[in-house]
Amino acid sequence: MTDTNRNGPAKADLTERADLLLQQGNAQYALSQFPQALASWQSALELYREIGDRAGESKALGNIGIIYGLKGSYTEALAYYQQSLGLNRELDNRAEEAITLGNIGAIYQFQSSYTEALDYYQQSLDLKRELGDRAGEAITLGNIGIIYRLQGSYTEALTYYQQSLDLSRELGNRAGEALTLGNIGVIYQVQNSYTEALAYYQQSLGLSRELGNRAGEALTLGNIGVIYQVQNSYTEALAYYQQSLDLSRELGDRAGEALTLGNIGLLFKAQEQPTLAIAFLKQSVNTYESIRNSNRELSQELKDSYTSTIEDDYRRLADLLLQQDRILEAQQVLDLLKVQELDDYLRGVRGTGTALSILRPEAAILEKYDELTASAVELGQELETLREIEEDARSPEQQQRILTLVTLKEDITQQFRDFANSTEVNDLLEQLTPTLANATVRLTSFNGIQRELPNLDAALIYPLILEDRLEIVVMLPGAPPLRRTVENLTNTELNSTILTLRQALDSPNSNPLPASQQLYDWLIRPIEDDLAQADVTSLIYAPDGQLRYIPLAALHDGESWLIERYHLNNITAESLTEFDDAPSPNPRVLAGAFTDASITHPVEIDGQTLSFSGLPFAGTELDNLESTRFDIKSFRDRNFTLDAVKGIMYEYEILHFATHAAFVNSNPEDSFILFGNGDRPNLSDIGNWNLRSVDLVVLSACETGLDGFGNGAEILGMGYQFQLSGAGAVMASLWSVSDRGTQDLMTRFYDHLGQGKAKAKALQQAQIDLINSSDEEIANALRGGLAPAGTTQTLPESIKGLRHPYYWAPFILIGNGL
Fold this sequence. Notes:
- Helices cover 59% and strands 9% of the residues.
- By secondary structure, the chain is of the alpha/beta class.
- The strands form 4 sheets. Strands 9-6-10-13-14-15 form a 6-stranded mixed sheet, sandwiched between helices. Strands 3-2-1-4-5 form a 5-stranded mixed sheet. The chain has a two-stranded antiparallel ribbon with strand order 7-8.
- Helix 5 (94-110) packs antiparallel against helix 6 (114-131).
- The longest helix has 28 residues, at 360-387.
């Protein structure tokens, strides 16, 4: 009788269950059921670990990494891939190691970390060549070519693409051949070698059709359309776009549909038909919004497309609307653009659910176009079914039907060519006067704000940075929106001045006045008379692009700072209609401070370990706060924990955190607030908090500033996340601030808030207090720990010491200013 290990059958059962879960996840993934696949693979991972199946564990880890990569959660994806890579190397599974190296390379590629991506792709390539994996070698050669293309190294890219193409042809890999031919076409296109690009695209198109790759066919048709468009062959371009649109709709490819609608819009723009262009660009933007609202991720291929990007469609549409004086509609696009930029910065932010208003004449134009498209789709589907029959097996009737369908498709194509110039379309375009557009459009969110502007004694300012000018839209109480244009101002010149001012604001030893006055002349001077005539005292500001890095308060007209005339608050899309909620007259304050300089918390950010120590003046700041009239509950240092405050935050109207906070640009979800015991809730955690009763969150911190410049979306990111959790407003800093300077500003802010002033007014008055600091106050601040400026003798007297905007300007109010 054989002695049987009683654990044997149990282990076998668990192995079978784990394998089934792995296969189930594979099937769900193939059906694009990504959440279900993730759940299956995570369950399989737990079982593989329980039974010690290292090979199975490695497979599950790698699969989970794929899902996180698709979600755009690159940090998590890398963590799973690295675990899988370690196991593959431990098990000497060279084939899986090569695959995982390539997957890691792809994650770095998606993050635009091209040096790292190239390194991992090269490791993968070396290993695949060592193993004789010729098919894998061809794929990796193509990936390396993509990296060189993205870096602008087109000669190197072509070299790798050609190697990939040769190998695909040698192996008979027709799909790989089609893909690489398209990639080579891209290289020639960006080099303006349109004849060569077209030749490669046509070869790719032929192969895609031969293989029945409908998605590849749709993409390539669009690419060919772009070639004809840049060559001013508009009729041919429209014909190819129409075919691409047909296929995208037939396949249910919403992202491809949005891309092609945008390209058609740009085609009409190039033909100087802006009103027709607007109709198609609106439809494109609305399609992107529907994708985002349904929580679907755009494909990485679309994001990497060399044609117009999503952001470009939004900006071009806003630009065209402004040129047509359709200001209300342009404002709505600007709002959607701000949400789109935050979506890129904070994954999980979704659309507002508000589609762009399609005017009746525009709807009629689009309906006419869709009628043609629907006919083409039906014909295409029938034609594709017939073509699936072997040529020798087709009946005479079927052959005749194919000929008829081909002729009908040619007729429809001709109708598309005539579409833009048709009498019907031109009659509809005549109806789209600016007066009709402004009278017809219904933008409830902006109407709501306009109704509140007289009560708020405020103006709403929306700047839009365009390539060759700055557009400023201003909404005043009781007046229609106004548009002011700063001509002949390139975005390069504007951004350069923004950078100069930001660098001057970062140091109390630098003179910010020249750049500050220049930006005032561009941004405020054009609307100065409008604001004066309206006699407003408050500015509600929705900055665009890199203007988000500059506090509006620090603009100077040559005699005084802007903050000396207006109290200010920035907005996010979430706070767009939340300006009329009055705060509690007797707010309760929940405060926490990290004050002990002997306590240090190490934090790893982007592979570097940074040490954060307590802020001594945060203690003084808390002492001063506790001496005010407010009802305060406070925590310090190691008692300042997430557990201590999380359960009671919703019971207070003001949250005051005198501690470090930091933006992590490489992975914004990891941006955090540091509690005294080392807890670090990140932006995702904050989004789950219940702050419905909280009127104001104050982040009195010294590390909320940023190193380097992006498009400025991250500036409003933390404020947006707090507002999603229910907070009415957030105060945060735009750059690393002085510990002592912050204490002075915060003490004065709460003094004024305690006197019953609104938040924006209290912040304004605190800033004015520092601007008007006496020499004695500055001397006391220096003795109290304010760092002396080594070159103050070169500065005008008006910006020495606490009067310098370095100390009073960094904090901005985001949201409701009441």
